[in-house]
Amino acid sequence: MTLPGREAYKDELTALAALDPRIVCLEADLGGPSHPFAERFPERFLNLGIAEAAAVDIAVGLASAGLRPFLSTFAAFGTWRAAESVKLGLGYQQAPVVLVCPYGGVSGGWFGPTHHSLEDLAVVQSLPGVRIAVPCGEAETRAVIQAAADEDRPCYVRLARNEPYEAPFEPAGRGEVGWVSGTGGPTLLVSVGEKPAQLCVAATERRPDLSHAHLCWVDFESLSQAAAELADHARRIVVVEEHRAAGSVASTLALLLPRHEVHSVNAGPSWPSEGGSHDETLAALGLTVPAVLAAAGAGETPAGASVLGASRPARPHAPLTRPAGAPAGRPTPSMANPGATLSPTT
Amino acid sequence: MNDIDLARERALRARGSVVDMAASPAGCHLGGSLSVLDILVAAHTVAESRPGVEVVLSKGHAAAALYAVLHQTGDIEEDPAPRYGRAGGPYTGHPSPKVPGVRFPTGSLGHGLAYAAGWALSRRLLGEPGGAIAVVGDGELQEGLVWETLQIVQAKRIGGLTVVVDVNGGQNDGYVADISPMTDLPARLAAFGFEVAEVDGHDIEKLAAVLVPEDRPKAVLAATVKGKGVPATEGKAASHYVKISPARARQWKAVLR
Known about the structure:
The complex is a heterodimer of chains A (about 350) and B (about 260).
Chain A: H1 5-19, E1 23-27, H2 36-40, E2 45-47, H3 52-64, E3 68-72, H4 75-81, H5 83-92, E4 98-101, H6 120-125, E5 131-133, H7 137-150, E6 155-158, E7 178-181, E8 187-192, H8 194-206, E9 211-215, H9 220-233, E10 236-241, H10 249-256, E11 261-265, H11 278-285, H12 289-296, H13 305-311
Parallel strand pairs in A: 1-2, 1-3, 3-4, 4-6, 5-6, 8-9, 8-10, 10-11
Antiparallel strand pairs in A: 7-9
Chain B: H1 3-22, H2 30-48, E1 53-57, H3 63-73, H4 111-126, E2 131-137, H5 144-155, E3 161-167, E4 170-171, E5 174-175, H6 176-179, H7 185-191, E6 195-200, H8 204-210, E7 218-223, H9 246-254
Organism (chain A): Sphaerisporangium rhizosphaerae
Protein name (chain A): Transketolase family protein
Protein name (chain B): 1-deoxy-D-xylulose-5-phosphate synthase N-terminal domain-containing protein
């Protein structure tokens, strides 16, 4: 049975701790009443309670003494509530603390915006030297936790909630591109995170001419390496991610690839404050297969697009970069402003 | 010369160095540096003879005092005053980890206490001796992070931690008592499971005796005088940040006490 990312994290860290006595597991009251690490290594497990900023700082103190703390809390709290502690400890001090945060994106669904995290990557991405991973599925989550434990570096790991995901691709390591389908054609879908990967898989089923690559490590250093490989395979890149535009992977890739078109399918500007599942909340944000296809410049009119445009605060998927330096007369794709396909009404 | 006499000499020399830093182009947080200086000297005297004891200056704006004291302990070989605040040197207005003897950078208030708690906890997890002495300001206690940390220290029974409060009564905009008074502080700290002591924050001998980290966490309320040692600044809230001329520095150093 495939484990959801959160459970894969707990299981993998417990296994690693058997081999590495430096590993310490810290929770902030959101790890659940039973935890395999606590059962196996109670002396190295501390639930520090609802005090995220102090928890990050205490983890920094432990790391400074040579221990390898893993601290877990929801993404909204680990990044924003404790933002300054993360800046000063993981950023400025480069303390090798691993911050593992479930409830990334809107995986909290009906929990609402207080528990959503559509801005966490922007926070961490702004801190030079902090590694960032958004693993998909059990195998990649385990690989990320192993890599984080092996290296003496600060790290942020964004997970989703409790749904298991059977990733149809091999884990992608740091700086690597995980190819999901196709490696040709002018347009490449790049997914970041489990739901975006599912959207892109569904999109390529309808449009087999599209390629789909998945990225797991999305800090600037990792993206710098991956960008070169992406650039070799497509002129037009559509990044699909469960995050706002600011601080998105799309925005970083746009900086890294000024001669490419980088388009963004992101969570947009709204605050989804209705009930619903993870999928329903994503749909409310416009993160849907039709939106992906529209941004990809599908030949067909994506089903549902008009509904999206009529009833939702649709986002224009305008390119984040102009193809600066592109030769004059370069073929301008008809979807240069694919947001028009969505008929934004607001 | 015994340790305490040596510490007193170090304190006097360090005071002169702080006055020199106030005469730098950047000036320095003079009042709080002079109030906390004897505490830092005592804390480092404790740490020098006990392996694994880390001193963390959580009120990082008193960096001038820390640099001056670390020069006296030999951690910083050069006199930091001529390079204080200047380009090309590590002596920033708040402690930088590039400075020898500084493990945790501080300045944004509250964090140093939590780093110290983490360090103290590491002793237990690693089975190694030592602990931490966190030096905080009385104004700093207004930060929520301080109380989050004290809560965790109590809940997780983190021993080996001494929190010493430099009670100089001042903060950036004036007096603590006028801005956000910290009432019943001994009782508050005791309620968090700390053994509380109140001492003269300029009595290095008593400080050195009471700061030693022990199994039960300790809070030491050290009554100090802002600007201590320079008659022109003693007890004046306006001494919080001072920039003086080299000539004024020579005058002040001539009457240090």
